Amino acid sequence: MTHSAVAKYQPRSAPKAKRTTVPKVRLYVERPETKNWFVHVGHVTDRGRWRTEPHAHPAYGQVIFVRSGRGVMNLEGSSVPFEGPCALLLPTECVHGLDYEIDVDRWVVTIEVSYLTQVNAKLREFISLWSLPRMIPLSYSAGAGVEFYSLINSLKQEVESEAVGHVVGTEALLTSLLLMLVRETRLDQTSNEGAIRNDIRQVDRFRKLIDEHYRENLPLQDYASMMAVSLVQLRAACASASEQSPTKMIHARIITEAKRNLIFGDMSVEQIAFWLGFADAAYFTRFFRREVGQAPSQFRVAARQQPDRKVLS
After folding, report:
1. Number of structural domains, the chain?
2. Is residue 33 part of a domain?
């Protein structure tokens, strides 16, 4: 694919736009100077109302277990109410703001991205689970919230343990926790595990390359060459592991960045177009309208007029 179907590349002489970015934060971890970690479990016991401003943590994924209480999770211009027991799943790079109501009891599982990738490779449904931010109710089946709470507690104990095999134990419990979320989300199951794992690895590599190059207007063949696979293999892997075409995955990444800048940034639509590699703001507008259903200016106005704008992400 070329961006003739997506975007026209920005000439070198195009003016540089001043950019206001979404905060990318490093997460608090106890004793970071004395303990290497790949999973961290924290119990948040703040009293009263608690609000987090829009931010992202690209090096980590998070599962927030809301044992009781309620609030609003805001994601890329959409407000999602939640009430415990439920799990809030926040993939890496997900821009989010959270507004917890009074005395929400919550547990936060933070997973380092390279380790999360390893765990996700075990099951295709894990990749699907982390493909989008989610609010997963745990009230459909009797005892689901209690079971999830028990898993979280066991995971916390294992993470903090110095016993023999605590790394293996941590992985087993984390896998069980994610599997429960998959089943509560009712993601489709699949067979042919060996081939699917290979497809998952290929798509994970493709996603990383998209993150590095989505503003460069690369032909799809260039991505395939960097991965040392054919276009046919790349398309087949994407269809199997992501249920999207490679072109659609690139489109989605461009749209995600466009939305973030429209909601949180101060750049004009034209500046955003140049930033994303479009030489023509009108073409960017047509592309955005086709993918989102609204012009960029309409999307910006609608997103910023939402009642919970202060915690939008």
Report:
1. 2
2. no
